[in-house]
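Long-time lurker. I teach an intro course on protein structure, and each term I like to show students one example going from raw sequence to a predicted 3D structure in token notation. This year I'd like something fresh instead of my usual example. Would anyone be willing to generate the tokens for the chain below so I can use it in lecture? Attribution to the forum is fine with me.
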Amino acid sequence: MFDSFYQDDIDAVNAKFEAQKIAFAPLSFQAARALRDLGILELVSSSRKKGIAIRQIAEQLKLSEYGIGVLMEMGLGMGIFKLKRSESSELIFTLGKIGFFLLNDDMTKVNMDFSEDVCYQGADDLMKSVMTGKPEGLKRFGPWTTVYEGLSQTSEVFQKSWFGFDHFYSDLAFPEALPIVFEQKVKHLFDIGGNTAKWAIQCCKYNPDVNVSIIDLPGQTAVAEKNAKAAGFENRITTIPCNVLDESTKFPYGADAIWMSQFLDCFSLHQITKILKKIYPAITSDTNVYILEPIWDKQRFEAASYSLQATSLYFTCIANGNSKMYRFDELKQAVENGGFVLREAHHNLGINSYTLFRFQKKMNVYVTRFSAWTDEHPPKLNFVPMLFRRRLSDITKMVVQTVHDVSEGLSHTHVTFASEFGEIQRQYKISEGILSSGEVSPAQFSLSVFNIPASASSIVEQNMVGYSAVFSGNKSFENGLKEAVVPILSGREKERIFVFADERIPAEYATIAKYPNPVCALALRLSSKKTNAICELDYSSLPATETAAEQALYFLNNRLPQ
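-- Reply from a regular --
Happy to contribute to a lecture. Here you go:
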């Protein structure tokens, strides 16, 4: 955010001046609008450095010197005009920088028209709207609960300024958004809140293969159909008239990508979450959800943030009474509460600094089976052939047993094995042999590598899908679990087995490691499907512990059914 939002370093004199500007803001706004619409700004601009007197303007516009005079003097106080030093008793006016932008800047023109034609009358009911949570100012235009319901029935002037404001901002970001959206192949895009079909038409021009379905209120879809036909895309742009907030509305299936441009700011945070929850079951984990919004705390210039903060008041008293232009974190959180995760965000798109979010479904992970071994004595493994069983270490026996428990009768899947100490007993015997005889037993060495427990388990289960091994010290359990979860969250895998194990370390290591350390093995069968689930996996951060096995035991006792 800008430093001025944190620092109050204006002096008292200027602070009081700013307060007076606020006190007279309704009058100064109307004065500026009159100066523009009566042609006064244009005349002063045409006079260039020579300047022009009130009398000359009154003569050219055939208006009274009084009327022109009060407007010009207020314009001088607002910084719209500057005076040229002259020996004449008349004041000679030239156009100041503020006046230049009022006359020539497209953003300022759009904002002024919107404020006058859409907001000005209803703004008188702003305080009442804050108190009731309803758009009380909207009653001045029609009997609707939101502006969107009656937009197509408002006056031509209202619609011109409303759509001019809406499209001026978002349209300027479209050219930069298009290559981002179509970086990945999109055959069918759903444009929610597509309004007049401007984005849909640009998509069809940009990508010759894409089809677009516009989802919006019936009044808006009728306009969209007309514009799509005029652009020659009536066969590629279809409409789905509905109210996305209606309880009976179910979101359609079939989209490769979802697009919402300056749409979610028309809803409260609670409603945003509700909309995303409707979208969630209708899309896959690969579907990208793009949200284009002007975020007020991600703007390059303070004037832009100010404009967005002011626009929020329009939502309060005219649009719906409960939405606004959002901060980055609050909009992100509302979408994530609907079951989504932010993949990336592109800031400063277009000259108006839009943010393009890309979300995907947050995939839940479920535990369908689990098995634990915490006895100091290893399992007997009666289901394993004796000649093979007798070669296995304690840690390998625990892994073989627990993996078998979560695998029996089910299809094979990838296994992630994690351990802090691995085959520590065998490694110790190898070290003893080197010290005593200078030789290494080939049999001991071949069975001492870190991944032996996972390898032995795959042989017993005849699982040829594959396995991976994770070691990261006393965080081996937590990081191994993350390694197992990520392929499911990304949608690359539907199932995976995670197994952690540690055996008792030799007493000789007591000076450099915790002894006696916990003996533990824990295997989890993880799935993206809720069917037959024991519980949903909680893979959030775990408390820091001295050993990884203590984390595993904490997880067993606190995050799994007892």
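Some talking points for your students: The chain has three domains: 3-104, 147-361, 366-558. The longest strand covers residues 340-349.
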